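Can't paste images in this forum, so I'm doing it all in text. The chain is below; anyone willing to post the predicted structure tokens underneath?
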Amino acid sequence: MRAVVQRVARASVTVDGDVVGAIEHGLLVYLGAARGDGPADLEYVASKVAGLRVFENDAGQMDLAVSDVGGAVLVVSQFTLFGDVRRGRRPSFTDAADPDDANALYEAFVANLRARGLPVETGRFRASMIVDAAVRGPVTILLDSRKTF
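Text version of the structure:
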């Protein structure tokens, strides 16, 4: 499972002209599931997102998690995180989980964050979305459950 996490001042997702998810201060998470991902992958990435200390404390150090600053999380499904362009210029998505498995993992990821007490908004799975974000910093972190060195 992969996630690209951005610290944002605000972020929203629009589908067919309607805002389906929006947050103010918090984290925008683009989430992709790979073939073979399971509960351990989900737990690893959810734990990292919830505990990521990318917000500044009073001394200006990145030392606070989203829950410490009263922030929220906007989770957007993003199968293209598994796009492979090593051969040619057109991405191959053979490593991405099939849609049914990916949707189940996406929903479980959102539930996991909510169970941790985080306010979570979402995009719409498999929809064509417009994501609008004011990235603060910029701070962008890549998480990958299969690269846990």
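The chain has one domain: 2-144. Residues 99-115 form the longest helix (17 residues).
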